[in-house]
Amino acid sequence: MYKNFKNIEKVVFGRGSFSAMAEIIAEKRNENDGFFLFVVDNYFFGKELADRLPALPIDVVRFIDPDPHEPTTEQIDKLRDEIVATKGLPAGVIGIGGGTIMDIAKAISLMFTNEGSSTLYQGLNLIKKPGIYHLGVPTISGTGAEVSMTAVLTGPEKKLGLKCEWTVFNQVILDSELIATVPVDKWFYTGMDTYIHCIESQLGILNNAYSLAYAQQALSLCREVYLGEKAGRNAENDDKLMVASMMGGLSLTYSEVGICHALSYGLSKILGEKHCYANCLAFQHLEDFYGVGVVEFKEMLKKHNVQLPQNLSASWTDEQITAMAHVAYNLTHMWYHAIGTNWKEKVTIVSIKELYKRL
Ligand code: NAD
Ligand code: ZN
After folding, report:
1. Do residues 152 and 191 both lie within one domain?
2. Does 295 lie in the same domain as 213?
3. Distance, CA 240 to ligand 2 centroid (Å)?
4. Whether the Cβ atoms of residue 204 and residue 255 lie closer than 8 Å to each other
5. Both 191 and 166 in a single domain?
6. Prior bond to 183 cis, omega within 30?
């Protein structure tokens, strides 16, 4: 089985490159009903960046709160239906924000052209038609959502992405000036998502020279940002983290994530924990699987005075732990990658419950 993936069509990289957007989208303005939909992280409401949006009076600008929950199928369907009913079909969608907004922009771009609820399309290659033009501007780095071919949505039944080649952004603008305002805790958790992507990508059977090259480079950038002589928040590190996020995303696209992500999905779906934080909660307890990766992760925690809660599972019911184990178990591609072709002989609901009890 060979993976044949589509990458982002165009990428702008550079401090201040946000200002290139007006020119980039100008040539797309004649498409469909001639207006753009901007979905912007609510953090930027009333901030300077909001004044710099190249939005015309015809455009729709929506500030969306990415907290407390991750994007839902219901949220996408509702926004799509409302925009279509009031304005018609946009020329394109522009997402400005973190992984949450990236996924909203990617998902809604597809749902403008695919009928019915987005719940129908959660999975691989279920989308029937290409979406409308979509452009992503990440403002926090780590998830790799800016480059991945999935838009992760939580639906009534599952947390699963709309995954196909049309999900990938047509254009991404990587302007690392935009991530300077990210609070330290979020900078840490989201950056660690990249770190964990790379550790998991390289420690599994789907690892290959192509995915490994991206993982190694992204890991070395993460080490400079979080452990190096000039570790911490500065412009140079923001550049590096932004590139690491993209490379981490590419690494896992051509390989796969593993046990930490499987557990993390359970924590998000059942307990509502956010992706990157949930990864950190789980990863600290996976030293027997990810060895030096976990040791190094703990060094980073220490260096940046980040304290993760312990003994969380003591307050969870058996029902909750069982439900999380089922969510995790069903991510069969992750176990296959992490444990091997015979993973079903080694991994059971009971053994996954034991992993959750470590938390
Ligand atoms: P996020 O988008 O949820 O944002 C985290 C927080 O940072 C929010 O409070 C937001 O307002 C704030 N923020 C963002 N930019 C800021 C800035 N410049 N200054 C100050 N605050 C800022 O965070 P995330 O961790 O990037 O994304 C998590 C989401 O990404 C989850 O929904 C997860 O499912 C998804 N995800 C998707 C993929 C993918 O490949 N599609 C991969 C991993 C995770
Ligand atoms: Zn992740």
Report:
1. no
2. yes
3. 18
4. yes
5. no
6. no
**Mean residue pLDDT across the chain:** 96
d(CA 121, CA 180): 35
Output the residue whose Cα is nearest ligand 1's atom 17: 182
Residue 36, pLDDT above cutoff 70? yes
- The Å distance, Cα 192 to ligand 1 centre, comes to 12
Q: Of 348, 355, 204, which is closest to residue 265 (Cα–Cα)?
A: 355
Per-residue pLDDT, 6: 86
- Please give the DSSP secondary-structure letter assigned to residue 348: -
**Mean pLDDT within 160-166:** 93
pLDDT at 326: 97
Q: Please report whether residue 251 resides in a domain.
A: yes
Element (H, E) at 324: helix 318-329
- Both 175 and 192 in one domain: the answer is no
Q: Average pLDDT of 179-199?
A: 97
The H helix count followed by the E strand count for the chain is: 14, 9
Domain end: 179, 203, 235, which one? 179
Share of the chain above pLDDT 70, in %: 100
Mutating to test ligand 1, I would choose from 40, 41, 102, 251 the residue with most ligand atoms within 8 A of its C-beta, which is 41
> Three-state SS for 335?
helix
Residue pLDDT, tens place only, 78-100: 999 999 999 999 999 999 999 99
Q: Domain containing 352: what range?
A: 184-357
Going by C-alpha positions, the residue among 214, 5, 181 that lies closest to residue 98 is: 181
Give the pTM: 0.94
Q: Are residues 73 and 198 in the same domain?
A: no
35 within a domain of the structure (yes/no) = yes
Please identify, by atom number, the ligand 1 atom nearest to the C-alpha of residue 147. Answer: 40
**What local confidence, expressed as pLDDT, does residue 1 receive?**
65
- Report the residue among 276, 280, 327 best suited for mutation to probe ligand 1: largest number of ligand atoms under 8 A from its CB: 276
Is residue 358 predicted with pLDDT exceeding 80? yes
pLDDT at 77: 98
- What's the gap in Å between 170 CA and the centre of ligand 2? 21
Q: Which of 7, 39, 43, 146 to mutate to test the pocket of ligand 1 (most atoms within 8 A of CB)?
A: 43
**Distance (Å) from CA 185 to ligand 2 centroid:** 16
Q: Are residues 195 and 48 in the same domain?
A: no
